[in-house]
Specification:
11 strands, alpha+beta, 6-stranded antiparallel sheet, 11 helices, about 45% helix, Phosphorylase Kinase, domain 1, Aminoglycoside 3'-phosphotransferase, Chain: A, domain 2
Length: about 325
């Protein structure tokens, strides 16, 4: 018997306003209040603040009644990228990332150490890149056997880039270069083998609330068996308004890439290759999504494609 049932959980308007992803998205949103209320009761949690959300999840600040411990209940939309999130967090065991307190993978539910709300947006973008790079040595460990291989993903990306119509709003030379790099990386043994976060940028790093210990903790991994050189790329496309406001987009992108490469002692050419591939693939995904919906490119899609192409061209020159 739930204490008040699903009425206790309010799905934020911002989460409901996100665009549809797949046919399972809307049904999941409809189930979310009841699912969250059930978890609150089963795990003996008390809501402790306003709900928040990411791109694919509801996050409820809670207190564990039995211990009085503040925590965060994350209930995610089930999708491939999130399938092994609990395994990565369990493996890190609070080192460089929030501690996993409890998990129900079948319901995509995680009870997490509370952190934030301050994220790396409190720092300038270069300092934020350096702070993310400082987490790499802690997070990058031998990959767990259950994780998806980055080589398989990049191999698929290369084939789909090759099949992209010439009429697509992406320079053909860039598409061909990214497809070639993707084929090379898919065949490279170094593309797999390291546990990587997969989406590590400033909004996915929160201030620690621990009395002592690390200043920053990673959240929301999309873990892969991958290559650390692929990890910096999300730092390039986030906080994009600051890149544009700098007046020199290419220089601003390269400053970020150089900051994280230098701080983490990565190979710059390999990091650039991954940036070309992952940025061009961002444009590919946007085009594919619009085609699947049978729609024309709207302003938001055009802006995202332009951003992706701009980053890829900046790092390859």
């Amino acid at each position: 018997m739930t204490r008040g049932g699903s009425a206790r959980v309010r799905v934020p308007a911002g989460l409901r306003a996100l665009p549809d992803r797949e046919p399972s998205w809307e049904p999941w949103l409809d189930r979310l209040p009841r699912l969250s209320a059930d978890l609150l009761d089963e795990w003996d949690l008390e809501p402790d603040g306003e709900p928040g959300h990411g791109q694919c999840s509801l996050v409820l600040p809670v207190v564990v009644r039995r211990t009085g411990t503040p925590a965060a209940l994350k209930v995610g939309w089930p999708h491939e990228e999130s399938r092994h999130e609990h395994l990565a967090l369990q493996h890190w065991h609070g080192a460089g990332a929030v501690e996993l307190l409890r998990a129900d993978p079948h319901r995509d539910a995680l009870l997490l150490e509370r952190a934030g709300p301050t994220d790396l947006g409190a720092l300038d973008d270069v300092a934020a890149c350096e702070a993310v790079a400082a987490l790499y040595p802690v997070l990058h460990r031998p990959a767990l056997p259950q994780l998806r291989a980055l080589s398989a993903a990049v191999g698929s990306w290369g084939r789909r880039l090759h099949d992209l119509p010439r009429s697509a709003p992406v320079p053909r030379r860039l598409v061909e270069q990214a497809a070639g790099l993707a084929r090379d990386l898919a065949a490279d043994p170094a593309t797999d083998g390291t546990l990587v976060h997969g989406d590590l940028h400033g909004q996915n790093v929160l201030a620690s609330l621990r009395p002592s210990g690390p200043r920053w903790l990673a959240i929301d991994p999309k873990p892969l068996s991958g290559d650390p050189h692929a990890e910096p790329v999300p730092l390039l496309w986030n906080r994009w308004d600051e890149v544009v406001a700098s007046g020199d987009v290419r220089r601003a992108v390269l400053r970020r890439l150089d900051a994280v490469v230098d701080a983490a002692a990565l190979d710059r050419d390999r990091a650039r290759a991954w940036a070309v591939v992952r940025s061009t693939v961002n444009a590919l995904w946007c085009i594919e999504a619009v085609q699947q919906r049978g729609e024309a490119l709207d302003a938001g899609a055009q802006e995202w494609i332009t951003r992706a192409v701009t980053i890829a061209k900046a790092v390859r020159d």
